[in-house]
Amino acid sequence: MPNRWKPNVTVAAIIEQDGRFMLVEEETTDGLRLNNPAGHLDPGESPVDACAREVLEETAHDFAPTFLVGIYLNRFTRTRTGDDITYLRFAFTGTLGAHHAWRPLDDGIVRTVWLTPNELRATQERHRSPLVLQCIEDYLAGKRYALELVHTDASVLTHVAV
């Protein structure tokens, strides 16, 4: 089947402290947007490992995923190019660790911000996708699933595709 549909696999971290959620403010083709610390799954890594890596790259904080919040499918059309893209997102929550102030943030990441649920709801027009708020609403609803639901076969970790 030459035209097989292949959604982009991404991971996101839902990080809450004292009633506020950590987000990143990032430059996009549509301007400055808010997003959960998130990114693409790289070859040779599990979704859990990818989430920890993305949090470190985008926020300069260590992060240890402890629960899966949910798995989400989202379709998106790029404003500039008209590309039709589908994302499959694994959202995790966990423990925020040490901050490494010396680490540069990923290209495009301007800063981290901490917002309350009401502030998040009031800024939906600035969200990178509708999944930003959906993942947080699911977290607030108490959705937590064992990490064992996301199995990564050893073949993924030992073979990196070219």
UniProtKB/TrEMBL annotation:
EC class (word): hydrolase
Family named by the database record: Belongs to the Nudix hydrolase family. NudJ subfamily.
The UniProt record lists the keyword Hydrolase: yes
EC code: 3.6.1.-
Quaternary structure, from the entry: Monomer.
Span of domain Nudix hydrolase: 4-138
GO MF assignments: nucleoside diphosphate phosphatase activity; ribonucleoside triphosphate phosphatase activity; thiamine diphosphate phosphatase activity
Keyword terms of this UniProt record: Hydrolase, Magnesium
Needed co-factor(s): Mg(2+)
PROSITE patterns attached to this UniProt entry: NUDIX
Protein name (Swiss-Prot/TrEMBL): Phosphatase NudJ
